[in-house]
Write the structure tokens for this entry.
Amino acid sequence: MKILIVSDAWHPQVNGVVRTLEATAGFLQSMGHQVRIVGPVADRWFSFPAPSYPTIRLEFFARSRLSAIVDDYQPDFIHISTEGPLGWAMRNLCMKRKLPFTTSYHTRFPEYLEARAPLPLRRLVRIFAYAGLRRFHMPAAAVMVSTPSIEHELHKRKFRRIVRWSRGVDTDIFKPWGRDVAAYRDLPRPIMLYVGRVAVEKNLRAFLDLKQPGSRVVIGDGPDMEKLKAEYPNAHFLGAMAGEKLARHYAAADLFVFPSTTDTFGLVLLEASACGLRIASYPAPGPIDVLVGTESFAALDKDLSAAVDRALALPANIDAATAFAARYSWPVCTAQFYNHLQAPTPRAVKRLVRIRNWLGRFAHHAIERLVRGLQQATLRLRDAGKK
């Protein structure tokens, strides 16, 4: 089958959405399918950096480009991965052409926007953001989410046709490589590690404010990097990494700390456990679903400092951590994704399209009659003037 995936998050960005789409596309191709991923084009007229994220480009007015891609590629299935301007353009194109599509909910954007809004407007911003997301996903044949808590949350907010699409980890790359990496050799132990975007929604200050002895290491990049470097000179910011280099830095640490309360899954939790690390986290969406049955190597607490103390008190249990990560297989996750692509178009959407087409035809005929009437009236006036 030909599968078209449209995503506002794509290379050169480095984040969980990009890594998920890369892995899914790779395994779909290994199953014999053709996959094309369309992301924003940076050098188009209406492509701009995202507010507070200069490294992320947003492409506006992309419908004509997407239309040409659909005409050329002729996909069997269309999946819209993100709710950005590119995702909206593809959604509207599918609605206009009566093309079925699925969507996924990777990111809790309302909470991200709320964290950036002025304090008096935060609740209002979140309400409007969820209303917009509900409208975006309403026509989708299936809305894919990664965990039960996010599914429950969206059900409460009146989202429909929600299905589960889990995440995986490549255990050939993420595995216990050993404890020796050059960047850690002179750092006091225990080495507490954070991996992810350096941005306000990741609640990174909760990690950097920890008072436990040892070293706090941050791997990743983002809009708050320089500000946090200045505020926390004793922390170690190593920049963005990927692949085996990242895996080796995971494996050489003593503890992985996950301070975010806004993630829908937390792919880094699987990567850390696959490398044999102990984990400390808040009991937030993502960790409470992912870290089930991990008491031998993970600790969750509403007080992050208490979670860190409990996790550090656990004996290193590499076997339990790696066995847990091995349950999350990309082939299984990819099979879930492919099955959901085949979900039937909702009857309500078909009805909406029929009504819209009928209204369009009615308006077209009404305008035609009006024009003919005006033409006839003009001719009658002209004839009357001649007489």
In short: The mean pLDDT is 91.
